[in-house]
């Protein structure tokens, strides 16, 4: 339960890296732009203060004569002329007695000008007061407060710049991280794919392609080497298994299937055969003089005879027919499919004939051997593998009794009698 | 050219205004009338003094005198305050003397003349003497400006205005600060 939860909480490498890149880029941009904006505001404040003083001084020079002559109209006109073209929100001119001579105020234009005023009041040291002097003596004062249109414009453009820079850096961070990621996750993905295929499908033949990053490449190479070892081990194991399986089901001398293999094959054939249409023949073969050869010429000669017999029998059969060595000098043949009983008898005759040629033994000795063959046909002589084999065995003894080196077909339904030991 | 000078609030403006307001409130109109006229004359005299001193402060003579000699010539209406003598804001004292119109010393003893009501002969005599001299002339009457005076006062109820005769200014050799001329131009352009 907790394992599932943990794996759900686990994030992908791609998202981890991307989030890391993004946050680094955003933090850098925000910090840089914040510090730049702060510096800019500081510089702007200095310049705005200076500008306001310059405006005040310009007003001062212009209205000086008007103040000396106490001319309200002239003062108002001069004040309006300057203040209307500069960043002035409100300006007042007093004479030396403190009487208001002229007053100018920028017309309010809605919300924006209120924001500008708030900004200017917050940022600038205003209103500023500059004395009007004439011949070294103060004759009045100019009081000016600026409006923050420039500051507002700077802040808005700064904000816009921050947003644009943030978007740009986010985009470039994502772009770069994607490029970086393709270099990292691409090989990792391939590696994971190959590992998964090797684990689930035993596909040890697949290899991890080379990567551009050195660590990834060496990881892939090591993995490939591991796969090489696994593959060779696997193929070795397989061939060993095959050899063992072959050994278990075959006779090592003649390389023919053994009794167990034959029994299994017979049972399978009988299961898949329809008794109404098809027939299956089982032939039981026994060498007539094998014990004599063994005793006379030695076991090596016996083995040579057995190999020769096996080769000759095999040569008489179709590809799908099975010939097995049951042990000693006993062989069995499975003929399937079989269409006529006579076909089985003809094959038996051919085998007997093929034995007439002498077998060359080591030491340039030629001997002639013969086989006695018992034939049992399914379903006439037995419905089960055991019954068929017994019927064929009995028929073979019958043949041996009648004439050595002949063949005999089992008679009618086989009645089970105790099996006699091999000849 | 007119330069208006408000006369409502001057050096004693604060308490004066208070007083006049009290008088206006608590006295009958017939009682208030002479007081008001007395105050008005006083205010005008002060306003005239301010304008004259203002003009003097914006004027430059070829040789700057250590003490400015202002001569009042002929019968005048608003010089009561001026005649007390004063000091410019630069610290230079202004010495005010009354002279007769036929006094030949006008050309040498005065840096500036304040002309009152003069007959045509007297005026001609004075301007003849002053011709070619660096003397700043201020007339109390508006009409005088066309005849040769540099500045002419136009004393009205609420303010004292003045005009400038630029030709006379150019001829006199006394330099007048552009601010004053600019005020004049403004007045001309906006009659």
TrEMBL record, chain A:
For this protein, the record's Gene3D superfamilies field holds: 3.30.70.270
Molecular function (GO) terms listed?
catalytic activity
- PROSITE patterns in UniProt: GGDEF, HAMP
Localization terms from the record: Cell inner membrane
Q: Which CDD domains match?
A: GGDEF (cd01949)
Q: Name one GO cellular component term.
A: plasma membrane
Q: Where is the GGDEF domain?
A: 278-414
Which SMART domains has this protein been placed in? GGDEF
The keyword RNA-binding is assigned to this record: no
In its UniProt entry, what is this protein called? Diguanylate cyclase
This protein's species is Pseudomonas helleri
UniProt lineage:
Bacteria, Pseudomonadati, Pseudomonadota, Gammaproteobacteria, Pseudomonadales
Automatic annotation (TrEMBL), chain B:
Entries under Pfam families matching the protein? DUF4154
Record keywords: Signal
Q: Which organism is the protein's source?
A: Pseudomonas helleri
Protein name as annotated: DUF4154 domain-containing protein
Q: Do you know which InterPro entries this protein is assigned to?
A: YfiR/HmsC-like
Signal sequence span is 1-32
